[in-house]
Specification:
The protein is an alpha+beta fold. Helix content is 24%, strand content 29%. It folds into three domains: 3-68, Uridine Diphospho-n-acetylenolpyruvylglucosamine Reductase, domain 2; 73-225, 2-Layer Sandwich (Uridine Diphospho-n-acetylenolpyruvylglucosamine Reductase, domain 3); 234-337, Alpha-Beta Complex (Uridine Diphospho-n-acetylenolpyruvylglucosamine Reductase, domain 1). It has helices at residues 33-42, 93-103, 166-169, 197-200, 211-225, 246-255, 273-279, 308-326, and strands spanning 3-8, 20-27, 46-49, 55-57, 60-68, 73-78, 82-88, 127-128, 131-132, 137-144, 149-154, 175-185, 234-237, 243-245, 261-264, 268-271, 286-287, 290-292, 299-302, 335-337. The relative contact order is 0.13. Bound molecules: uridine-diphosphate-2(N-acetylglucosaminyl) butyric acid (EPU).
Length: 338
Amino acid sequence: MQLYQDYHLASANTLSLPSVAKQLVCLDHVDQLPELQPLMEAAARRWVLGGGSNMVLANYIDALVIKVQTKGIRILSETTDQVLIEAQAGENWHGFVQYCLAQGWLGLENLALIPGTVGAAPVQNIGAYGIEVDQLIEQVQVWDVAQAKMCVFNSAACQFSYRDSVFKRSLPGRYLITAVQFRLQKKSTWQPVMRYPDLSSHPDLQGEPTALAIFNAVVQIRQRKLPAPAVLPNAGSFFKNPIVSARQYEVLLQNYPTLVAYPYGEDQYKLAAGWLIEQAGWKGKQLGPVGMHKNQALVLVNYGGATSTEVRALVEMLKRDIKQKFDVLLEQEPIAVQ
Ligand code: EPU
C-alpha cells in the first residue's frame, strides 16, 4: 500500500476543483485494513474519497485521504423471488446498476447514471425518480477506525433520511464503508416505480414497462437534463430540496401560484429548489468561472479554472438571494472537504 504526499485531486473530483491532499492512500482490498489502521490513527484528520462526485474540495486538504477502490459483487442468498447482493464500496455505481439489471436482479433501475461509487451511495442516501437507495439496502458494512474493527449497520442504524445518514453526520473518517448489501427482486416480484412525472409521462413507459425500459428512460432523461461531469464538471444537485412547514408552503403558494412542491410527511412540503433558483433569475447565470446550469438550475457547474473559493462566493450570494426572496434557507448538498 503506497502512501502519497501532496497528492493532486483535480481529476479525482467531478467538479474538477484543484486540490492537494496532504497524504493519500488507496484501499484496494479489505485485507489491507489492518495495515492501514496505524496510518489512520496517526493522522489528525481523515477523509474518505469514493468517486468524488458529491464533494467540494478545498485547495489544500490537511488530512489523510483514503481512496476506496475495492471491487467485487457477489450473491449472499437467493430465492426464486429475491436476491441478497453484496457489493464492495469501490464499485462504480452505474456499472453496479447495469450489472444487476443484466443478471435479472431488479429494483435499482430508477437510480441509473448517478455518478459515484457503491460505498458513497448510503452516505447521502442517493435518490432519483421516486426511489431512495435506503429502500433497497439491507445493511452497510464499515471499518470503524475508532474501534479498529469491522461493524455492521442495519438499515435502522444507518438513520437514513432525505439525502442524509448517520455516515454523513459522523466525524469525517470515522467510518470507512467497505461493502453494502442490497435486497433486490426477481421478475416474479418486481414492481415498477413510476410515480415520478418524468417517468409516468414517458412515451416508452406506457402500459407495463420492463425494468430495462425504465433504466433506458432514466438514462435518457438524465442525459437530457443533467450535464455530464466529464464534459462540464459538476457535483449533481448542489442544494437539497428544502423542506418547509405546511404554513410556510401556503404563504409561498399565495405569493407564487406556480410554486413546485411535493407533500412531505404529515405536515410539511418539499420545495423544488431548482424552481426557486430559476425564479430568482439564477438559471444559466455565471459568476466568474462558476454558474448554475442552463437546463437544471440546481446544478452548479465549473466552466473551467474554478476553485472552492469561487464556488463558495456563488453559493453565498445565491443563498442570500433565495433567503431574501422566499424566506427559505438552502442547504448545500455536496460535502465541503477541507
Ligand atoms: N425546476 C425548475 N427549474 C429548474 C429545475 C427544476 O423549475 O431549473 C422544477 C421543475 O418544475 C421540475 C421540478 O423542479 O419539475 C423538479 O425538477 P427535477 O425533476 O429535475 O428534480 P429536482 O428536484 O431538481 C431531484 C434530485 C435529483 C434527482 C431528481 C429526479 C435533489 C436535491 N435532487 O432533483 O438528484 O435526479 O430529483 O428524481 O433531491 C442529485 O442529488 O445530485 C440529483 C441529481
